[in-house]
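Weekly modeling sync, notes
Attendees: S.R. (lead), two postdocs, one rotation student

Agenda item 3: backlog of single-chain predictions. S.R. asked that every request posted to the team notebook include the full sequence so nobody has to chase files. The rotation student volunteered to paste the first one in as an example of the format we agreed on. Action items at the bottom.

Example entry:
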Amino acid sequence: MTRIDWGRRSGEEVETVVGILLCRRHPTAERITPSQGDAGLDVIVREPDGWTVYQVKRYATQPNASQKSKIKKSLDTLIERRAATTAIKAWHLVTPVSPTPPSLLWFTGLTDSAPFPCTWSGSDFLDGLAAEFPDVIDYYFRDGKDRLASAMADLATAMQLPNAATPTIRQGQGPELAPTVAVAPVLATHDLINSLDPHFRYDFSVDTQPPDLTRSSGFVFAETRGSGTQYFTFKIYEKYRGALADRPITLNATFRTPEQADQNAMRDFIDYGAPLELGQNLTTIDADLPGGLAGTLTGAIRILPLGSLSDSQSRTMRMRIVDAADGSAHEVKLHVQPATAGLDGRNLRGMADDEGGAFSVELRYKDDDSSQTFQFIPHDLSGKVANRVASGLHFLSKLRSGNTFEIAQEFGPYTGEPQPIPRDLTALVDDKVLELIDSIVVLQTLTSNQLTVPDLSTLTLQQGEEIVVAAKVSLGEEVVVHFNKLEFTPNGSPVPEGENAMFITQDLDVKVGELSISVGPIGFHFERVKIELEADAENPDGIIVARPIDTPKMKAVARLLPATAE
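Predicted structure, as returned to the notebook:
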C-alpha cells in the first residue's frame, strides 16, 4: 500500500481519519468530541485495569513552540483532571510525524514526571493502522466512497440466481438447481460490500417469515421488504463505537395524524430515547442511509435505542423492599439495560427486567427539576416457570406506602439511603394470582417435571381452587371444601340412608397445565349430609347419592392421610 502523505491533508481530515483508525483497532473505544472538552484525551480505551488514552494532534512537521505548548497543556490537563481518580495505563501522543532526536528529547523531558507511561506514536504507527484498515483510507482519501455506492447498486444484480421455474430447468435441459448454487455469489457480495465501508458492517438475509429484529451490539438500522413467504432484510451495524457520529444517518418521516397513544410514544422517544414503534401511521421516510441505500421507504417504523450512556452491556443489580410492619426484606435481581437519553441528551431513561420474568421497572430522570420516577410494569405470567416468578410477585405485593426500597450492586451490602414508597402499588398483583403461583411452587416439590403457570386467560375459578387446595393439603393443612353432591356405587354393605356424618377417602391428583401431580390419599369428613339410594334405568341396582341439608352445598374438612405401607 502506498504511504500516505499526511502533510497534504487538512488538519480536520487527519484528526477524523486517525480517530476512526484507532476506533477500528479498538471497536469499544470512545472518541471525545471537541464539544465535550477533550481534557487531554481524544480517544479512550476503557479496560478493567485502566484507561489507554490517545491524544491526536494534526501536526505533520516537528512541533514548534506553540504546538509544544498545546501538547504540554493536553498532558497537564489529563494529569490534573483524570489521574487522581482514574487509573491511566498509558498516554499516546499520535501525530503524522515521527519525532527527530531533538523532538524526542523534548518529549522525554515533558513526560518524565507523568504518573503513567507516555509514548509518541508517529508516522510509522499511523502507516501501520492504515495498512490494517485500508478501507478507511480508501473511503476518505481515494475513490472508495464511489465504489461502495456502485457495489450496493449492483447488489440486486449480483443476487439474481437461477430460477426453478425457467423452461431450461423445468424441462430437465439444464443443471439441477441446488441450494448450494446460492452460496458463492451471496458470500462474494457480502465480502465486497463489507470491505468498502469503514464505518458500517452490512448483513442481509432471506426468510419465509418476517424476522424478529431486536437490539444487538452495534445494531443501527434494518429494512425488511417482502410479503407472503419471502422477506428480504438488510441490517446495518457500527464497525466501531461512534461510527454514527462520523457518518450520521438521518430520517425525515411524514406521518398521518397519529392516535394519542402514538403521540405519547413519539414524545417518549424524543424526551427519553424510549423505543419507538409506529405501524401504519407512518406514511414515508426519506432515509439518508449509508452504502448507497438512501431512498424513500414506506411502511412501519421501529426505532431502538442506539447506545448507552456508559457501557453497552446489561448488568445485574439488586433491589429490595423492607416491610415497615415486621422489618422483613423482599429482594429481586434485576437485569439493567444500558440507559438511553432524549434527543437533547438531558432526560434519561433506564429499564430493568426482573430476573424471574414477573415484571420490568422503568426509571425516568427529568433534567428540568432533577426528579426521578419509577414505573413497575407487570408481565404476562402464562407459561413462565412458577418458581422463578414467585419472588417478583411477592416483591410487587410489598409496594405499599410506608415501606422502603433500596438498590445495590449484584454483590455486597446495601449502602444507599432507603427510599420511601410514596403510594400503594399493590394493585399490580392480584391476590388470587399470587396464591395460585405460591401453590404451584408448593406442588413443584412433589414432581421433577418443571411446572409453569397455566394460561391465566382461560384458567377457570374451579381449576385454580383445586390447585390451591391440593397445595394446602400437601402441606398438612386441614382445608374446608364444598360439594354440590356426591355419587357412589354400592359395594354390598348396608346403605345408611337419612341424615348422617360421612367420611370418605380418595387419592388426589391435580392438574397444573398439562401435567397431573399426585398429592396422595386424602380424607374428607362431612359432619351432616343426606344419604339416599336411588335407582334409574342406567343403575337398576341403585346408586348412593349424598346431598346437602338446608344449605346449597355440602361442607367437608379435607386432610392428607398417612401413606399406607404396601
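Discussion: group reviewed the output briefly. Residues 65-83 form the longest helix (19 residues).
Action items: rotation student to repeat for the remaining queue; S.R. to check formatting next week.
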